[in-house]
Amino acid sequence: MDLEDRRRASSAVNRFGLGARAAATEPSGDPRAWLLAQIRRPPDGAEWLAGLPDSLDYLRRETDLMRELRKLRRRGATATGRGPTAAGHPEPRNPFQQRFREAFGDDLRRESLARWQIAATTTTPFAERLVRFWSNHFAVSVDKGPVRLYAAPFEREAIRPHFAGRFADLLLAVETHPAMLRYLDQAQSVGPDSPLARRIDRRLALRARRNDQPARQLGLNENLAREIMELHTLGANAGYTQADVTEFARALTGWSVPFPGQLDRGRVDRPFFYRAAAHEPGTRVVRGRRYPDTGFDQARAILLDLAASRATARHLAFQLARHFVADVPPPELVERLEQAYLESGGELAAVYAAMIDAPASWSPAARKFRSPQDFLVAALRGGSMVLGSRAQPFEWFAARLGQPTFMPRSPAGFSDLAADWIGPDALWKRVQAAEGLASRVPRAGLDPRVLATSLLGLRYDPSVQAALERAEAPQQALALLFASPAFQWRV
């Protein structure tokens, strides 16, 4: 390979992928062909994901656990015992928290391990980065209790199967998943004039009169409708109004998860349930278009129109170009991706191909700062670290560096901008993390300078070389390698 070929190969592995592996030589041929091949087949990981519970299984078991916990509450259970926190300090543990951990702790650890194992070993790192990109684009957070069990299955069930298909199919899978329905409170949204609301309001009003208290009413929740428009499809400032959000929220009423009784009777075969009695009746007008009352299909039709919108094409094009090329992506690249989206009818594989073929994607100026999880995955792959049976140390590193798994601060997901990860305190924590990561690299046959050449390629400059040569021990040299600026950037 000449220098230009080597630079592009490095970009394919690091900027489009998850980071180089010490013993790997990919891509050995054309970097573009190597990337394209990864979106033409399912991503790696099936062996690690096999046997994990699906969302419906979690939903049934969670329902059984909540019944058990209600019995504990009725018996007046109080906090008992103490248990270790993530930081190793004792904290009071009540029987409800303890029972949840007993019921689901092993499953959640298996979910975490599978995700890290896939990142560490995948031979389709571009595909895996795309899965993670969409998982963050459609962010949910486990710091909201009802989402704790569903964030990992959300990525497995809604994102992974659709990452290279039609965006409309991905969008529908996302918005009907219990993780999203619960995170954005859609499962509790009820049309104010729906049959369910009228029936329950009468019951609540009667109870209120008996207790001499004001009546409480069920109501509409606009969270999902707003975030679909602002974050998932059109983007902020795309010309829609508050009235559009409210009308869309009315159309979405009825989109929910099965009730416990439905699970008991075995009448459901998926964790999504359309509750017709909770749907707000009537025609809806969204962005100037009328949608007749067709039940579930009313909101589905709105989703499909949002997916087909030029504003959505532009928003997604910008997000992809920013993630893969630069914090301020070239306008001509964004336009190219937008056109590919519109001309293909929203086929994501066509958009990715347009990005791979674009000269701007391979510019020497194209580079991205690694987010904390990117940094950890790159070190994990580059150092050939062995996870064993638990991923908790890497989860701890991720939380320490400010990017705990499935726990963004808002529905907007984790930031994709270098400025949000490159502050002095954040960089100091990376140096500390680099020392911890270096201690986990297998020592057999290790030569840090050879490893640096393999991982950094053309970026193994004299300053890095000099730092490694001054190191007093291999572990110190590895820490310097992982903490070096050359390793922190996806170039």
Structural description of this entry:
There is one protein chain. By secondary structure, the protein is mainly α. It has 3 domains: 46-75 and 98-183, no CATH class; 186-308, no CATH class; 369-490, no CATH class. The protein has 24 helices and 8 strands. Strands 1-2 form a two-stranded antiparallel ribbon. A hairpin with a 2-residue loop joins strand 5 and strand 6 (289-291). Helix 1 packs parallel to helix 2 and helix 20 (424-438) runs antiparallel to helix 23 (474-483). The radius of gyration is 25 Å and the shape is globular. The relative contact order is 0.11. Mean pLDDT is 92; it is low at 78-92.
Brief rundown of the structure:
By secondary structure, the protein is mostly helical. The chain has helices at 3-14, 31-38, 46-49, 55-74, 95-121, 125-137, 151-159, 167-175, 178-183, 195-211, 223-232, 242-252, 260-264, 296-308, 310-324, 331-344, 348-357, 372-382, 392-400, 424-438, 448-456, 462-470, 474-483, 485-488, and strands at 82-84, 90-92, 255-256, 273-274, 284-286, 289-291, 368-369, 489-490. It folds into 3 domains: 46-75 and 98-183, no CATH class; 186-308, no CATH class; 369-490, no CATH class.
